[in-house]
Amino acid sequence: MLRCVAEYLEMTEDYSVGNLVARTDAYLNDVALKTIAGSVSILHISESLLPIAEKTKLVSKCIDAIAYIACNESQLCTSVRSESGSDGVMSSSVSSQQRPVVDWWAEDLTVLRIDLFQRVLIAMMARGFKQFAIGPILMLYAQKSLRGLDIFGKGRKKIEPRQEHEKRVILETIVSLLPKEKNAMSVSFLSMLLRAAIYLDTTVACRLDLEKRMAMQLGQAVLDDLLIPSYSFTGDTLFDVDTVQRIMNNYQESQIGNHFVYNGDDEYFSPPQSDIERVGKLMENYLAEIATDRNLSVAKFISLAELIPEQSKPTEDGMYRALDIYLKAHPNLSDMERKKVCSIMDCQRLSREACAHAAQNDRLPVQTVVQVLYYEQQRLRDAMNGSETAESPSIHTKLNVYSGDIQVSNELTSLRRENEDLKLEVVKLKMKLKEIEISTLKSTVKSTVKSTVNSPIANASPSHSHSADKPPLPRKSFISSVSKKLGKLSPFPRLDGIVSAKGKIKPNKNRRHSIS
């Protein structure tokens, strides 16, 4: 403050030797700016003295002092760590350098305003500060400056527009300062920034940048990192499914790009299989978690399931669990919709436990259950045929042949038992289908007979039989045949008439011309 006042009062050496400007500069250079804590304190106070503090170059002096001391101490700590681990393997020293320890002075930088904080970090990187070591400093600053946002809640917190604008600027600046390295930041921290970006409605570029960064490290993510609440509040899904879908699209694009990377021998290689399997397991758990949402449409569920790479799923048990939960949470789906949901599952890759559960699952369509039983029976048949027609083992396996025979016999016994159970299940399903068809046919016949008997045409007089409103031919033939048979079986013929061959009664000839 004295330095700014001296500048304002023009207390320079032109008017007096040893004036206030020279004395304050000497104190700042020799005492105050020798430590990071002193430099940060002066820079923080200078925020309220702008623009005169900028005119006196007090801000630039503090920033240069912080960058110089921080780089020197960081290089010293790095050299000490590398020397302590020099007797080990080289990979261990590289991993230690890639896992920077938060320096003691990083907490002091969190009191600075976002624009001055950005200038300090840029000056540090210009002096050679390692970019991946910027990550812990950004994490500390973000946790302190973005405090108070209810990014994990269901309701939008009411904050003032001015405060919301300040936090939005802070978040966008932090995202622009993130290191370019792949594993410099944790996925949980990136997920927290993405939640805050959606909550504060930052720019599209800021959110897309975070989504791409998460996609690059998706193999390290956990389920909570993807369960991003939906802040639209329009009666849509509980979680932001569209964001996760874009992250998966970016992941697939990055995996396609990795297939074109080659080594010195011009041999193409794929990303590690364990990473792909972790992503597949993660997405199956995500589908099972969001499947309970009643607002999740069939199209959205299927589109998410189709994004899971096929090579990431050793079995279809996770997918079966997800669609079973979805069918249970959506009992009003039509048969066509249930068939579409079940079409995303490959029944041939289900485990035995999943097949046994699916065979007794009433929520699955009948076609899917029959398909599961068919593939399981085919698998058991192939397994038994393969064990019976297997060639003689090698010399190495002959050493354990006696112990192996016991295991093979037990396996065959269990396979035969399971095969019989599956056949019984198929028979039960066929019997159930026949019972349903018979009951449906009986109800149809009963309703037809009832409607025929209660029809008003059945009680109509013969004079109306040839009218325009005569009943259909099948109903008329049924009534006429019944009446003919009853007439033939009558043991008391009428005395006043003779029954003709056609079943009609003719009057007696003696009474035909009678006057009475």
If you had to describe this structure to a student in words, what would you say it looks like?
It is elongated, with a radius of gyration of 42 Å. A hairpin with a 5-residue loop joins strand 1 (497-499) and strand 2 (505-507). Helix 3 packs antiparallel against helix 5 (58-84), helix 10 (187-200) runs antiparallel to helix 11 (204-216) and helix 11 packs across helix 13 (241-258). 60% of the residues lie in helices and 1% in strands. It has helices at 2-8, 20-30, 36-46, 52-55, 58-84, 90-97, 114-126, 134-145, 161-176, 187-200, 204-216, 223-226, 241-258, 273-290, 298-306, 317-329, 335-342, 352-359, 366-388, 395-398, 401-453, 473-489, and strands spanning 497-499, 505-507. The N and C termini lie far apart (145 Å). The chain has a two-stranded antiparallel sheet with strand order 1-2. Among the domains are: 1-78 and 102-129; 130-259 and 270-285, no CATH class; 315-383, no CATH class.
